[in-house]
Design a protein that fits this description.
- The chain contains 34 helices and 22 strands.
- It is of the alpha+beta class.
- Among the domains are: 160 residues, Metalloenzyme, LuxS/M16 peptidase-like (Cytochrome Bc1 Complex, Chain A, domain 1); 224 residues, Metalloenzyme, LuxS/M16 peptidase-like (Cytochrome Bc1 Complex, Chain A, domain 1), CATH 3.30.830.
- The strands form four sheets. The protein has a six-stranded mixed beta sheet, with helices on both faces. It has a six-stranded mixed beta sheet with strand order 19-20-18-21-17-22, sandwiched between helices.
- Strand 4 and strand 5 form a beta hairpin.
- Helix 4 packs across helix 29, helix 13 crosses helix 17 and helix 26 crosses helix 29.
- The two termini are 34 Å apart.
- The N terminus is likely disordered.
């Protein structure tokens, strides 16, 4: 499923400016004459666009990014099209089912082909469309098009596969149910719409999801209606020859038969009055408020939709006066963001706010509506509008740094009317909007009758939550700044080139492992103060306002031994951007109000983000903490709550002075940075203290003996599982590439290539996914590829079982994973699996460094580990490997004698009893399963975890990271 926030939405609509263009085959019926007459085109690169005789529309764009190709297949069907009672969620369900394959290319066959070809494929579903995306080397384009065409024409699955996948979808629904924002969205849609299909989310209503296993016949009908060429577009972007590519498409897709079904959705009746609903969420810290207004339908040639997007960005983004007032100055809210999904029909435009105190909910609600009143009564300044348009333009250019990102942007607009010129139409409507248009359109849409408000908290109701009133808004001001000189003593990785995008990475070899005793979290606060706090000359709001028209980025990432400050800007704006961010980094303002705000956010992130709403990441972080007791890695990167509460601004200043030194700094630069600016950058960084420690000294991991389990009890509808043990092999070791290959075979992250995934999720439908790691991989539930700059001197082997439906299932899945790990250690990999995994990783590795900033980050990591450039390093290592090498590495690195398990469960007592009594954990299925699988189940359901009672601990979530 996909969620688009406003900044990404608008940026995607405008940023094809320097990367794309308009030109088609003159013989094509889809001529671009009208578009060519347009004076203002952001989509201007040559492309080939054609509608085949069967109604399939094909867009081919040739780019200069070598070797890689991105194929995106948007299907114009989403949850909007689910208008039969009791049949919601099927657009999303078929996103899953399409991966089952066809008779010619069943899942096992095409997955093996894709793995060997290094194909990275996935899909997502939205309100109005479903998109399938594949990224791979150009050599495999013909075969990928053949396989995908066969799947779309001849999808085949068994009733058992259908029913099993329905269980997986139910598990995904339960997983998503832990998110407050998803609960808010589900509640506001159900309340705001009386008849329209936008009443339900992309996942559908839960009762319909539960009933899916019995809807096999309807599933066939749904597929036959919507998976037809007139509903489908093919977007192919990359190192391709357009005419030859079009010929491939004609060959494989041209004989697909057109359908005759037309999806008709009745419009929603006009809302007559403001609505309000309160949702109770047991155990939720703080309170959430959502204020939503009905917006415009999709009309790229008119001004309404574009004006509403501009209003959201001007008045409700983190650059707005309202954000400054509520989050930064008064600190009534810890989070505020807007979300405006692009919808074919009139949808909702949302402003989310999280507050800590119930008494502040009405104040914050009134401030939001006061701001909408302000939009209706004032004319926005031309300077603000010009700055916003500049931001949109450069945000687009900054974001499109790979064939995949270009293709993804095109796919997100092709589904509306299946015309690539949609982007130009939308941009023209943005460009032509005036302050008067904004005021006029605000008065049409932001009225009481269009509003629906939702509150969410652990309370039964919100006291004194009366009807909104309109008030006046406030504004902020801008100041300029200076910089100073000196002489450099730090490492520099200079990869400057001709790219118009400039990426800079200030990587310090320090981090959370350097937090002093009693001050766990000071590194995290320091990192945030330097990117989300003001400088000595400018407030944080001033800096944000200065960065805004430049579309400049500056952010931080913290790990145990690395603190990375990264930024991106277009070369046109480099000097102005550098003046702003260098002042933050080298001349911090150390304002008490910034410190209090950021400390509050950090504490709230641990309490509400990690401990309350993110069971999966919580389990992984608890595992690290348990394995590294008494070690520099023991504490969570963001710190301990009790320590954070006591940390002072003076502690942060002391950490900055002692740890952010030239000796620890490793500077990375890429893109067309002007020589004069580069010289100034070097000079300025030389003002940092010299220091003498190059990097932190990290002890070996504590010795783990026997089997241990930590059960974290909390309000949870599913059970999250992580287990693992320390390993000595890190990226600089000779056996690392072999071990990296093993973990890919056993559990490639978010990939159906994973052996564990195939056994636990695919064959048994137990959960959402099952993966293994040999390097720290945070935020795994949000991304498919790891971040750079998480280098560590000590790592663990870890297995992550994405939430199970119950303690019984969690017990079985853990046993299954241990059973398969034992088998892997005993039998090793087969020659076929070894060759396939090596082929996959050899082809897949370049995708980890597909963008410029990733290339820079990985290059800096290679400096940390003292290895060659990453792709070259792993490919050379793979070329030398034999199956005997890999199986030796398995036996030398993997074991099951010493393991720590972590379970996040709603019933810790029950989980503990199951573990200690070795209680049988049988599985029941809703469809027939092969006898061989059932026989294996019999072994697994009693497979011993061998946990002595003294090694099993149940702890309340409240005590974690305290």
């Amino acid at each position: 499923m996909k969620k688009k926030y406003l900044a990404a939405v608008i940026a995607a609509s405008l940023t094809l400016s320097a990367c794309m263009a308009t030109s088609t085959d003159s013989s094509n019926s889809m001529s671009q004459q009208a578009s060519q007459e347009s004076a203002n085109k952001v989509f201007s690169q040559k492309y080939l666009f054609k509608e085949l005789a069967n109604g399939l529309r094909v867009l081919v764009v040739k780019t200069d990014y070598p070797d890689l190709v991105s194929v995106q297949i948007p299907v114009s069907v989403g949850s909007r099209d689910e208008n039969e009672v009791g049949k919601t969620g099927f657009a999303h369900f078929f996103e899953h089912m399409m991966f089952k394959g066809s008779e010619k290319y069943p899942q096992a066959v095409y997955a093996d082909l894709f793995k060997n070809a290094g194909v990275d494929n996935g899909a997502y579903t939205t309100n109005d469309y479903t998109n399938y995306h594949l990224d791979f080397s150009k050599d495999h384009l013909d075969k990928v098009l053949e396989i995908q065409a066969d799947h779309f024409k001849n999808l085949k699955y068994t009733d058992a596969q259908f029913k099993t996948e329905a269980l997986t979808v139910k598990g995904e629904y339960l997983k998503n149910n832990a998110s407050p924002t998803r609960k808010l969205l589900a509640a506001v849609r159900k309340e705001a719409f009386d008849t329209h299909t936008y009443q339900h989310t992309t996942m559908g209503f839960f009762e319909d999801v539960e009933a899916m296993p019995d809807q096999v016949a309807y599933g066939e009908q749904f597929f036959k209606q919507f998976y037809k060429p007139e509903y489908v577009s093919l977007v192919i972007v990359g190192d391709v020859e357009p005419e030859a590519t079009m010929a491939m498409v004609e060959k494989h897709w041209g004989n697909w038969q057109k359908g005759d079904f037309v999806s008709t959705i009745a419009p929603e009746p006009k809302q007559e009055a403001a609505k309000y609903v309160h949702e109770k969420f047991e155990g939720l810290p703080g309170h959430w408020l959502l204020v939503s207004y009905k917006g415009a339908d999709w009309q790229p040639k008119k001004k309404d939709r574009a004006a509403l997007d501009l209003i959201s960005e001007l008045y409700f983004s983190n650059n707005s006066a309202l954000y400054q007032e509520l989050v930064v100055d008064k600190q009534l809210a810890s989070q505020m963001f807007n979300y405006n999904p692009e919808t074919k029909d009139a949808g909702l435009r949302h402003v989310f706010i999280k507050v800590n105190d119930e008494k502040d909910l009405a104040t914050v609600r009134d401030a939001i509506n006061r701001t909408y009143a302000q939009v209706r009564t004032e004319l926005v300044s031309s300077e603000k509008l010009d700055n916003l348009k500049s931001n949109l333009k450069y945000s687009f250019v900054n974001s499109l740094d790979s064939s995949e990102s270009i293709a993804a942007t095109l796919a997100s607009y092709m589904h509306f009317d299946r015309d690539p010129e949609t982007i130009n139409h939308l941009y023209n409507s943005f460009d032509n909007i005036t302050a008067e248009d904004i005021q006029r359109i605000a008065n049409d849409y932001f009225i009481d009758e269009n509003r629906t408000t939702v509150t969410l908290s652990a309370l039964d109701e919100i006291a004194d939550f009366e009807q909104e009133v309109d008030l006046n808004g406030a504004v902020a001001k801008i100041v300029m700044k200076n910089a100073q000189p000196s002489t450099p003593q730090f490492a520099v990785l200079d990869k400057t080139n001709d790219s118009p995008l400039i990426d800079v990475n200030f990587l310090f070899y320090t981090g959370a492992a350097a937090d002093p005793a009693g001050k766990k979290g000071v590194a995290a606060l320091t990192a945030r103060m330097l990117t989300q706090g003001g400088s000595a000359t400018l407030s944080y709001q001033d800096i944000k306002k200065g960065l805004y028209p430049l579309a400049g980025r500056f952010s931080s990432q913290l790990d145990k031994e690395m603190m990375s400050f990264t930024g991106r800007v277009h070369k046109d704006n480099a000097s102005q951007w550098y003046e702003l961010i260098s002042d933050q980094l080298l001349n911090p303002g150390w304002r008490e109000d910034d410190f209090k705000r950021l400390k509050k956010e950090l504490i709230d992130g641990i309490k509400s983000g990690l401990k309350s709403s993110n069971d999966e990441e919580l389990g992984k972080e608890v595992l690290y903490s348990e394995l590294y007791q008494g070690h520099a890695y023991e504490n969570y990167n963001s710190g301990d709550l009790s320590d954070l509460a006591a940390i002072t601004l003076e502690d942060v200043k002391a950490f900055y002075s002692s740890q952010l030194t030239q000796a620890k700094l490793n500077l990375g630069i890429t893109g067309a940075m002007p020589a004069v600016l580069k010289a100034k950058l070097m000079k300025d960084l030389a003002t940092l203290p010299a220091g003498d420690e190059k990097r932190l000294t990290i002890a070996k991991a504590p010795v783990l003996k026997g089997h241990h389990a930590t059960i974290v009890e909390k309000n949870a509808q599913s059970t999250a599982v992580s287990f693992g043990f320390p390993i000595d092999t890190i990226r600089s070791d000779k056996d690392w590439a072999a071990l990296w290959l093993v973990r890919s075979y056993f559990g490639e992250h978010r990939s159906s290539n994973s052996y564990l995934y195939q056994q636990i999720r695919q064959a048994r439908g137990m959960n959402y996914g099952d993966y293994s790691y040999i390097e720290y991989f945070p935020r795994g539930m949000y991304q498919t590829k790891p971040d750079a700059n998480l280098g560590r001197s000590s790592q663990i082997f870890q297995v992550w079982l994405r939430p199970l439906r119950s303690n019984n299932d969690a017990h079985f899945a853990t046993r299954a994973a241990l059973y398969e790990l034992d088998n892997l250690i005993e039998k090793g990999m087969s020659e076929k699996d070894f060759q396939a995994t090596r082929n996959y990783l050899t082809n897949y590795a370049p995708q980890l460094v597909a963008s410029q900033d990733q290339q820079l980050g990985y290059a800096l990591d290679s400096e940390f580990y003292q290895t060659q450039e990453f792709v070259k390093y792993v490919r050379e290592q793979f070329a030398k490997l034999s199956l005997d090498d890999v199986n030796r590495v398995i036996k030398e690195n993997l074991q099951t004698d010493d393991i720590h398990y972590v379970f996040i469960s709603g019933d810790g007592k029950d989980m503990k009893q199951r573990l200690l009594t070795e209680q049988v954990s049988p599985l029941t299925y809703n469809s027939d399963k092969p006898a061989e699988l059932l026989a294996t189940d019999k072994i697994i359901e009693s497979y011993k975890l061998t946990l002595p009672s003294k090694n099993v601990e149940v702890i309340a979530v409240d005590s974690v990271f305290e």
